[in-house]
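Appendix B. One record, verbatim.
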Amino acid sequence: MILYVTQDLMLGSRIKSHAQDAGTKVSLSLKLPEASQLAPETEKCLIDLECCRGKLAAWVTGLGERRARLELIGYAPHVQESTLMEAKEVGLDQVLTRGQFNHQISELLA
């Protein structure tokens, strides 16, 4: 299962549609959930970095041992260089600009 963290409900519905086409289950969340609230079957998290500024590092650290089993992919507008850099520094597996994310949606949901 994929957890998609975003406050952009239009893109969220698009992601759910692509996921359904790919046979993948996606759960939407408006904010980063507590590690204990992550569904056990969650394998991948797609994170709109705009909705978790200043919280990402603590959240990744709080994942503890669970982090090793999760693929974390974050994205933000290309003009938010500091946000993208922070995501790289906290160790997300992939950090993309919003344009890259939109272009790669099908691959990211596979």
